[in-house]
Design brief:
about 675 residues, 2 strands
């Protein structure tokens, strides 16, 4: 049953700005219950002139969400307009800066400085909230500005705003620490008790606290996830990221850190930005966990999802979280149920349904239902606007895998022209899709296992149930190998040319290559000769990945104890090892897909780590991170290979996981 909105004062003064907090919290609750239009209409009706601190910024955030979901210029421009208005309203409510004489005095007397906690302590409650909302508004405006502009000049301008944002959050954080320390010292002095953790000053309201903690927490997380080259530059300005501290701050708002459900903050006592903290934690533990391992806690994500689904049973964002949780646990069928419910629970923001479609396409990949996945890519291509190139290639890859080459070719020809840029840079997955589309056309409308390759890129293989990998995916790989004139790794005499051990003579390999070329491809020698060894290495790579997950499923997978596999772990591991070694052997013959060699080293390293051979695993990880060329030809040593930055991030995370004895 819908709750009636709280009364909002008809007249507005800056001194009474915080009287609007119950109203904006009600609007947020409506939004999280998937009643988006009601929330948006309420904010607009309560503040038609956009002059009230809470409603002006709240309405701006809604427009930002709409803009980032659609990626359409009109929505992004609307978001920019309203966030600029929100920041200007917040700026009008901030404490005026000191005079020039006051600033100079601050350099001499620390207590007079306007960049420390003392300055924040002198503010009124409204001024502190305005300072917080000003930083939030700058962040959202910068984010939309980077997406909308698409050029480096605007990117640099917005990054300068980020420095202001980080400084503001750090200042507000120091104020909270100082206030809590003073309150704790006073409490201990009065009661003669010693406390392990500082108490919270009750005079500081929970809404302000939650805002500071989410800002500081996300800042720490973002900095900790940055590539080392960029982080080195950021650290020159004095900014460092502590991932565990960031997770602690985000978890503190909802009471998740103790692990005891009795400490969870009830909805009636939560701060305004608690849902944002919870969603940020879900994104880290369930989405970013693909690229990192440190701090990831799927069990915590499960607790957060379960609590929020009880609070918001039709909340689209937490249904997404439940679906992602099921997928991470290798339960794609259950994930599809949540995504279907998320798509059905609201129709007001059509772009939110596109997230369900995207996730459903990947979940169907994990079930190796290519036909069903194709339908979702087709719907995305027809309606969604975030990445037309990716959607188009996704549908085309599925069509090619299903043998519908005429329709696939028409779509492949469109992929390159659909690419877009953010902050002047192309999107890596779109660049990958364009390269594969051009290759498909150059090879006479032929690619080997294009849908499975895309499933690997989107981590669907790692979340596929063991039974699906063994009974559906590996047979598909076997068929591709047979088209190339090969047998499974460890499966027959043809492995003499590609298994471990000494490399065969040039004459033998040339004869073998010629023999296979007559069998491979679409039935013609010409199509088989173009990119033949690229196709061999791709098939072997996917074969290795599949057998690796048969031997060692993802650590977060919920395995069905009643399902007994007919393949021994040692046999699956041996087959995966042979397949990866085949990629290393034939890597120098690859013409275009040089990325396969580096990704094979990464996956082989993970296989070795799970086998207990950590030193050998580290050798392969170090090769990827060293920047040195692996088993590729001279053409592969020029420029970057596909999805290179993503591999660096994942490999750095794997090295850290080795140090922490975490399963890979």
């Amino acid at each position: 049953m819908n709750r009636s909105p709280p009364p909002v004062p008809s007249t507005y003064t800056q001194e009474k700005a915080l009287d609007d907090l119950p109203g904006i919290q009600w609007a947020l609750c409506e939004f999280l219950h998937s009643r988006m239009l009601e929330s948006e209409e309420f904010c607009d009706r309560m503040d038609p002139n956009k002059e009230r601190l809470c409603f002006a910024n709240g309405y701006g955030v809604i427009q930002v969400i709409k803009g980032l979901m659609s990626f359409e210029d009109k929505d992004l421009l609307s978001a920019l307009h309203h966030m600029k208005r929100g920041t200007s309203v917040a700026a009008a409510h901030r404490k005026p800066p000191p005079s020039l004489a006051g600033r100079l005095a601050g350099y001499i007397v620390p207590g007079l400085s306007y960049s420390g906690p003392e300055w924040v302590a002198q503010m009124t409650d409204v001024e502190r909230h305005a300072e917080l909302m000003y930083a939030e508004g700058l962040y959202y405006k910068s984010l939309v500005g980077i997406v909308y502009s698409g050029d480096w000049l605007s990117f640099i301008k917005e990054m300068l705003n980020m420095r202001t944002i980080l400084s503001t959050y750090r200042q507000l954080g120091r104020y909270l620490e100082a206030a809590d320390a003073a309150y704790t010292a006073s409490h201990c002095q009065d009661s003669s008790d010693s406390l392990d953790a500082p108490l919270e000053d009750p005079s500081i309201d929970r809404h302000f606290r939650s805002g500071v903690y989410v800002g500081l927490g996300l800042s720490h997380l973002a900095l900790s996830l940055m590539p080392s080259r960029i982080l080195t530059i950021v650290e020159l300005f004095g900014y460092r990221g502590d991932r565990m501290e960031g997770l602690r701050l985000l978890g503190k708002v909802g009471g998740w850190n103790s692990g005891d459900d009795k400490d969870i903050v009830p909805q009636s006592e939560e701060g305004l930005r608690r849902p944002m903290c919870d969603m940020s934690l879900l994104i880290f533990h369930l989405v970013l966990s693909t690229y990192t391992f440190e701090g990831v806690d799927v069990n915590l994500a499960r607790r957060i999802v379960e609590w929020n689904l009880k609070t918001y049973p039709n909340g689209v964002f937490f249904l997404f979280g439940a679906g992602r949780l099921a997928l991470v646990c290798s339960q794609p069928e259950r994930a599809l149920e949540y995504y279907a419910k998320a798509a059905q629970c609201q129709s007001q923001y059509r772009n939110l349904q596109h997230i369900s479609w995207w996730e459903s396409a990947i979940a169907n990949f994990a079930l190796w239902d290519v036909k069903a996945s194709k339908e979702w890519w087709s719907r995305l291509r027809a309606e969604a606007t975030w990445s037309k190139a990716t959607y188009t290639y996704g549908e085309a890859a599925c069509l090619a895998s299903l043998g519908e080459h005429a329709a696939a070719a028409d779509l492949m020809a469109k992929v390159t022209g659909l690419r877009q840029r953010i902050a002047g840079k192309s999107i890596p997955v779109e660049k990958f899709a364009a390269r594969k589309a051009r290759k498909y056309l150059a090879q006479g409308n032929h690619l080997v296992l294009p849908a499975m390759e895309l499933a690997y890129v989107f981590s669907a293989l790692s979340h596929a149930p063991q039974k699906v990998v063994l009974e559906k995916m590996i047979p598909s790989v076997r068929e591709a190998l047979e088209e190339l004139g090969l047998e499974e790794a460890g499966g027959g005499s043809s492995e003499k040319l590609i298994s471990n051990g000494p490399i065969e003579s040039d004459r033998k390999r040339s004869d073998g290559e010629e023999e296979r070329s007559t069998k491979a491809g679409n039935g013609t020698v010409k199509s088989a000769q173009v990119g033949y060894w690229d196709n061999v290495c791709l098939a072997r790579f996917l074969e290795g990945v599949c057998w690796r997950y048969v031997a060692y499923p993802d650590p977060d997978a919920d395995l069905d104890e009643n399902t007994k596999l007919l393949v021994a772990i040692d046999d699956a591991r041996r087959r995966a090892e042979l397949a990866f070694k085949a990629v290393f052997e034939h890597g120098p013959k690859i013409e275009l897909d040089h990325y396969l060699v580096y990704y094979a080293h990464f996956e082989y390293g993970r296989l070795l780590a799970r086998s207990g051979k950590k030193d050998e695993a580290r050798t392969h990880f170090d090769l990827v991170l060293s920047g040195k060329t692996a088993e590729v030809n001279p053409a592969g040593r020029k420029g970057k290979y596909s999805l290179e930055n993503a591999l660096y991030v994942r490999t750095h995370a794997a090295v850290d996981a080795l140090k922490q004895d975490r399963l890979l």
